[in-house]
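Q: Could you write out the predicted structure for this multi-component system? I'm mainly interested in how the pieces pack against one another.
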Amino acid sequence: GAVVSQHPSRVICKSGTSVKIECRSLDFQATTMFWYRQFPKQSLMLMATSNEGSKATYEQGVEKDKFLINHASLTLSTLTVTSAHPEDSSFYICSARRTTLETQYFGPGTRLLVL
Amino acid sequence: KNQVEQSPQSLIILEGKNCTLQCNYTVSPFSNLRWYKQDTGRGPVSLTIMTFSENTKSNGRYTATLDADTKQSSLHITASQLSDSASYICVVIVADSWGKLQFGAGTQVVVTP
C-alpha cells in the first residue's frame, strides 16, 4: 500500500513560536493532501484540503493565517502553526491521495504540545 | 449532528472472544464506506472498503458488512488478540467532487488477557 510519512512525530514548543510539520507521500504522487486535527478521545476533524500548486481550502472555523499550508510539490505538504498557543496542542494527521476516486492514505501523525 | 454514528463508544473483551461494532450513517450521496483501525498515537490504517453494491468484505479476522438500504454497517472481529486493542473508526465517503470523508467518533476496543 501507499506510504505517507510525517515529520516530526512529536514536537514541544513554547507559546508564541511557530512550528512546521511535514507530510510526504513516499511512493506515489499526491494531487491532494489533507490536514486533520484530533483531540483526545475524539475523531479526526478536517482542517484543510490542498491541491498541489494551488491555495488550500480551509474548513469553517479554521484560521488560514494561523495554520499555513503549502503544497509545493506532488509529494510534500507542510502545515505551519504560527504563534502557537497551548490550545493548539493536539494530534495533527495528514493524508494524501492520487486522485479523487482513490483512497486517502494517512500519515502516522504529529503530536504537538505547546507550553 | 454527526452524520456517522458509532456504537458502542467503547468496549472491553477477553482475548479470543468475538465482538461486533456498529456504524449508522445519514451521509448522502454515498460513495463508499471504510473501516479504519487507529492505534493510540498513530494515524488510521484502512481495514476494509465497501461500495454501495457490496454487502460483506473480509480482511483476515475483520469482517465488515454494509446494508445500504438501512444505512448501517458493522465490523466483526473474530478471535480477538491483544493487538486488536485500538480505536475503530467508521468513515463514509461523500460522492461529491471532493470525495470528502465523514468520520464517526470511533469505538475504543480494549482486549484483555
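A: Regarding packing and overall arrangement: The interface with chain A takes residues 34, 36, 41-46, 49, 89, 97-101, 103-106, 108 of chain B (CB under 8 Å).
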